[in-house]
Amino acid sequence: MNDIAANPATSESAVPMLSGSDLYCERDDRVLFQGLTFTLAEGQVLQVVGNNGSGKTTLLSILCGLNDSFEGKINWFGKPVNENRELFLASLLYLGHRIGVNRVLTPLENLRWNCALTQPVHKSKILKVLHSVGLSGFEYSQCCILSAGQQQRVSLARLLLTRAQLWVLDEPFTTLDTDGVELLEQLISQHAKQGGAVLVTSHHRLKISNLQMLTLGKQRA
Amino acid sequence: MAPVTTGIAGTGSAFMATLKRDLLIASKRKNDMLNPFMFFLIVASLFPIAVTREPQQLTDISAGVLWIAALLASLLAMDSLYRSDFEDGSLALLLLCPQPLYFMVLAKNLSHWLVSGLPVVLVSPLIAYMLKLPAESYLPLFLSLLVGTPVLSLLGSIGVALTVGLGSRGLILAVITLPMTVPVLIFGTLAVQEPRFGADLAGYLAILGAQLLAAIALAPLASAAALRISVN
Fold it and tell me: Is B14 in the A-facing interface, judged by CB distances under 8 Å?
């Protein structure tokens, strides 16, 4: 249905951080993508674009390992991702469009749990990070009284608390205001500069230098 | 950027963090905590009203009534185990953390039992008094529920994990879970009834204990696999 020749290899290092080759996925007898091949090297930002329903979210969840109904190979630093799952997961930060913020807990409590699962972080650091994502004054409020955009900011705070190399962000811009969009673009650029890699779906035109595109399905003319 | 190889949280601390988080959530949703407990109280008290007021007949049925009420109360509380986590995306985070999912599921099940199972166990002698259970059966009842209700939580977790992704759950959870709980029900009620007729309580408790150990070893694995399917 669609053959995608993704971004030409631009990585300086020989082995890309994450690569997928010949990925195929169908859902409800509809082929979402086939023959999909891409590489993502350190320092790269790859934006996945495509119409609604073209399989962007499915692709991201396949790459993270949440979804295993696909064919093809996914490699992490040249090795099949399944052989090195624990290290892969320790290096991965996934932010889905269900953002993983519990509504009855406070931002602080949410982030504490997030960090405790991967790398424990001291409370003072979390408070500082909440301040820098614009949530000062809301540290101890239940998340259900926060707006959707503020809840999204709680999940953005995870980006500042993690040491993960690979960020996988599914529609992270949807509920953010202009300041929030700017902040997130900054975070993504900064992460790429430090040698991290970012995989992001969005319909926005991102103001990020060295941005690679991966198009799913046929774009409307 | 250097690969992340150091500083990954230990499984023990991640287990405690998950347990604490779930207890914290439960403490903020007071009705989730009180509902199973009230349900147990009400169901158990319906039997004297509907079936009989004869002390002797009540004595005969009380062990079964208490165990079935505990079973239904546990089932009622089950649905909240993974639902909010599934809906807000926390479940995906749990599946994608570098910790063994087995222990994370076990932490959630333990927290669930502490909130919904333990109160029922603690209040059971009071209800037993109302149902004219003979005084010498209080201890067997208490002990059998103490060992048996965690098994109900662990088994129920499998059913919830399987159905959490379905739009309309309704009764399917009960249909999946209740048949699995029959062995617990059999030995739980026998443990309460039989010692009165001279049987050894320790034997029944040992079988319940064996069921608990088997459930601890195997049920979280099944729950973890079911969660992976549900998120798929």
Answer: yes
CB A143 within 8 A of CB B48: no
Per-residue 3-state assignment (H helix, E strand, C coil) for B45-101: HHHHHHCCCCHHHHHHHHHHHHHHHHHHHHHHHHCCCCHHHHHHCHHHHHHCCCCCH
Nearest CA in chain A to B225: A66
DSSP secondary structure code for residue A5 in this structure: B
A67-87 pLDDT, tens digit each: 888 999 999 998 998 888 888
Token pair recorded at residue B26 = 């439960």
Per-window interface: B 91-120 vs A, CB < 8 A = 92-99, 104
Q: For A133-179, how does the pLDDT look when each residue is reduced to its tens digit (9 = 90+)?
A: 999 999 999 999 999 999 999 999 999 999 899 999 999 998 899 99
Give pTM, 2 decimals. 0.90
For residues A125 and B166, the model is more confident at A125
| Interchain proximity A101–B9, CB inside 8 Å | no
